[in-house]
């Protein structure tokens, strides 16, 4: 039976901000009390505007950075408490694909050796690593003749395929894709998204799919989590989030999407207005309140608790607290 493969529990991360001469200017609250769970062989999409903490969350999940608070659990085990060989083994199970494949691809190595490299690093022989690299290049749809080429001769989409093969060769169970198609043309984006879907089923992968593009997230995800200024404002199944969004921010985001395919028909069609506040000085209480059409005094004093509005759909908004809900026409 399939179960939860990855869990974030109350993750928190702030970054100190330094001014002139290294003087502390405060801190950016990048990720604040973020929790979610990812079911095996499913995809969670993480969406939100630039700076809402998506990449910081990804880095926390990979343990590339340490949280100030909270846990990351892989099959129930807190990976933050692990070290040495055990941590190394779990690290292989969680691989990442970034927006910019240039950063992870070595221009001096052939395509084949770029893919084989991480296996050598992990102790495989050259021959074995290259044999597997051929296999994964084929799996991502690159012709065998590409193996001896160098990265500079590839298009953006082909480079992204190499980056995906590099992630796959370590035989991960989870792939975290952070804006993995954002730099690609629309037609190439569609091909790479389809590739992710195929690989997911072929290799029984679970995906964390991060994108600021709501259409991409809708296409890819089983579950969706919406973030705003480091906080989760709403989560639920993709159908719930796209067809029956609850949080004023989710509604505003969907109303800002140009595509008519997104289920916005029941909404009042008002996109988000106003400036994104500085993450160094986020609003007290609900962080969205300064841009929220429904904001009231109560939103200022405390952050709204997470309320389950439908089975599996949770929203952090005072509008959904029982006593207030009755008085407001949603
Ligand atoms: N190493 C760091 N030092 C200081 N601040 C940081 C650091 N990394 C991220 N931040 C800040 O944390 C906040 C969240 O950044 P993050 O990169 O996680 O957002 P994001 O949602 O991935 O944005 P984008 O959509 O632009 O990729 C931002 O305000 C960012 O400036
Ligand atoms: Mg990012």
TrEMBL record:
Gene Ontology molecular function terms on file: ATP binding; ATP hydrolysis activity
Record NCBIfam families: oligo_HPY (TIGR01727)
Which biological process terms from the Gene Ontology are attached to this UniProt entry?
peptide transport; transmembrane transport
Q: Which residues form the ABC transporter domain?
A: 6-254
Q: Which family does it belong to?
A: Belongs to the ABC transporter superfamily. Glutathione importer (TC 3.A.1.5.11) family.
One Pfam family of this chain:
ABC_tran
Note the CDD domains from the entry. ABC_NikE_OppD_transporters
Taxonomic lineage of the native organism: Bacteria, Bacillati, Bacillota, Bacilli, Bacillales
Q: Which UniProt keywords apply?
A: ATP-binding, Cell inner membrane, Cell membrane, Hydrolase, Membrane, Nucleotide-binding, Repeat, Translocase, Transport
Q: Quote the protein name from its UniProt record.
A: Glutathione import ATP-binding protein GsiA
Question: Where is this gene product found?
Answer: Cell inner membrane
Give the source's domain of life in one word.
Bacteria
According to its UniProt entry, what is the function of this protein?
A: Part of the ABC transporter complex GsiABCD involved in glutathione import. Responsible for energy coupling to the transport system.
Enzyme Commission number(s):
7.4.2.10
């Amino acid at each position: 039976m399939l179960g939860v493969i990855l869990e974030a529990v109350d993750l928190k991360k702030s970054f100190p901000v330094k001014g002139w001469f290294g003087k502390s200017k405060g801190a950016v609250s990048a990720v604040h009390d973020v929790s979610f769970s990812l079911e095996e062989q499913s995809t969670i999409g993480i969406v939100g505007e630039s700076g809402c903490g998506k990449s910081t969350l990804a880095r926390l999940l990979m343990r590339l950075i340490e949280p100030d608070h909270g846990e990351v659990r892989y099959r129930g085990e807190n990976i933050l408490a692990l070290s040495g060989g055990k941590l190394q083994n779990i690290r292989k199970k969680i691989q990442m694909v970034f927006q910019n494949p240039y950063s992870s691809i070595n221009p001096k190595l052939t395509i084949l050796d770029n893919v084989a490299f991480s296996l050598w690093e992990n102790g495989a022989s050259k021959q074995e690593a290259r044999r597997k690299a051929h296999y994964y290049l084929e799996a991502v749809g690159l012709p065998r003749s590409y193996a001896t080429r160098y990265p500079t001769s590839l298009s953006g989409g082909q480079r992204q395929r190499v980056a995906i093969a590099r992630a796959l060769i370590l035989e991960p169970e989870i792939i975290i894709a952070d804006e993995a198609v954002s730099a690609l043309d629309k037609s190439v984006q569609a091909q790479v998204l389809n590739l992710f879907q195929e690989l997911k089923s072929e290799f029984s992968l679970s995906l964390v799919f991060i994108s600021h593009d709501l259409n991409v997230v809708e296409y890819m995800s089983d579950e969706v989590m919406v973030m705003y200024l480091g906080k989760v404002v709403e989560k639920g199944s993709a159908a719930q989030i796209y067809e029956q969004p609850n949080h004023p921010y989710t509604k505003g985001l969907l109303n800002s999407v140009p595509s008519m395919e997104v289920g916005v028909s029941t909404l009042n069609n008002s996109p988000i207005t106003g400036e994104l506040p500085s993450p160094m000085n986020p609003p007290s209480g609900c962080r969205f309140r300064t841009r929220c059409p429904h904001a009231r005094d109560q939103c200022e004093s405390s952050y709204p608790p997470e309320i389950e509005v439908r089975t599996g759909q949770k929203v952090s908004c005072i509008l959904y607290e029982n006593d207030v809900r009755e008085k407001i026409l949603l």
